[in-house]
Amino acid sequence: MDHYSLQFRDRYVGKPMKLIFELPFRRLVLLNVFFAGCGNVIDPELKTAQHAPLSAATTATSLPADSQLLRGVWEIVKCDRNGEVFPQEVGGRISFDGDKAVSHSADGTKIQYLVELNSSVRTKTIDWQWKQDNQTQTLRGLYAIDGRTLHTCSPSTFEADRPSEIRTVAGDGRWVFQLEKISDFVQP
């Protein structure tokens, strides 16, 4: 990162928006570039840049690690599959604690996963690993956190290719979940 970028970051990041709007016009381009690398953007128009690594300035910020943001209990408030609403999953819950997750579906099914997060890419990735009969299967998905809202997208089967965006359309078999955090504490 060049000298001007570091100077800009130290002067304006975390400051009230009034300061940002008082910036000279020539600095707005830098502002736009700087914020473009901060976090996940769910936008079908940005497909080509979604998996590009984040800048060093973004990864060096003091934001909590995503595993800390995920820690707690999340309730499924919306589910889509194959481009259509899939209400059977609404009401299910997922508890995250470090690299472990426990899914409690609306019908009472409980599944334990090992979870691997990668937040160093523009579209964050999540791998759900499940053991059955001494074999580990991996569901490769995407996720985005916005405050106390979590969006996930995964293929319909284990070992399938990771989706390129958080979206589902007719016939793709993808699952897209919207979850709301209901507790910061993990239930036993």
Q: How would you describe this structure to a colleague?
A:
This protein has 188 residues and is α+β, with helices and mostly antiparallel strands. The protein has two domains: 3-59, no CATH class; 66-183, Calycin beta-barrel core domain (Lipocalin, Beta Barrel). Helix content is 19%, strand content 36%. It contains five helices and nine strands. It has helices at residues 3-12, 17-21, 25-36, 56-59, 66-70; strands at residues 72-81, 84-85, 93-97, 100-104, 110-118, 124-132, 135-146, 149-154, 175-183.
Write the layout of secondary structure elements.
Elements (H helix, E strand, L loop, with lengths): L2 H10 L4 H5 L3 H12 L19 H4 L6 H5 L1 E10 L2 E2 L7 E5 L2 E5 L5 E9 L5 E9 L2 E12 L2 E6 L20 E9 L5
Antiparallel strand pairs: 1-2, 1-3, 1-9, 3-4, 4-5, 5-6, 6-7, 7-8, 8-9
